[in-house]
Amino acid sequence: MRRNLTAYGFLCAALFCFTVFAWYPMVREFILSFQKTDLINPPTWVGLDNFKAAVQDPAFGEAWLNTVEFTVLALLCGYAVPFVVALVLNELRHARAYLRFVVYLPVMLPPIVAVLLFQWFYDPGPGLFNQILGFFHLPPLAWLDSSSTALISLVLVSTWMNMGSATLIYLAALQNIPPELYEAAELDGAGILKRVRHVTIPQTRLILLLMLMLQIVATMQVFIEPYMLTGGGPENATVSVAYLMYQFAFSQMNYGQAGALGMLLMLALLLFAAIQLRATREDRA
Amino acid sequence: MRRSTGLLLVSVIGVSATACGSSEAPSSSAPNSVTITVACQPAKSAPKERQAWDADVAEFMKAHPGVTVKSTDQQPCFDPKTFGPKLAGGQMETVFVVPVTNYNDVIAQGQALDVTPYTSTIKNWNDLRPDVRELVTKDGKVYGVPNVHYSVGLVYNRALFTKAGLDPDTPPKTWAEVREAAKKITALGPGFVGYGEYSGGNTGGWHFTQAIYGRGGAILTPDNKKAAFNSPEGKAVLQNLHDMRWTDNSMGSKLLVGWESLMMAMGSGKVGMMLGAPDVVTDVVNKFKGNVADYGITGFPEAKASLSGGEAYMINPKATPEQAKAGMAWIDFRFNTVGKGRFDFARGKAIGNPVGVPDNDVYGDSATGKALQAERVKNASLPVTNYEPYVQAAVTVPPKAEPVHAQELYAILDVVMSGVLSRKDASIDELLADAETKANTMLAAKG
Amino acid sequence: MISREKVGTAYRDRAASRSEAMGKGARIPIKRVRRRRPKPIHVQFRTIVSPHQLNSPWGRRIYWLVLAAVIVLFTLAFVFPFYWMITGALKTPEEIAEMPPSLVPADPSPAAFFEAWDLFDIGTLLANTAYYAFGAWLFSMVVDVAAAYALSKLRPMFGNVILGAMLATLMIPPMVILIPLYVTIVDLGLLNNPWGLWFPAAANGFNIFLLKRFFDSIPRELVEAAQIDGAGPFRVLWSVVLPVSRPILGVVSIFTIVASFKDFVLPLLVMTDSEKMTISVGLSQTAGAVTQNQVMGGLVIAGIPMIIVFFIFQRHIMAGLTAGSIKG
Question: Least C-beta-crowded within 10 Å: which of A176, A270, B194, C326?
Answer without folding.
Answer: A270
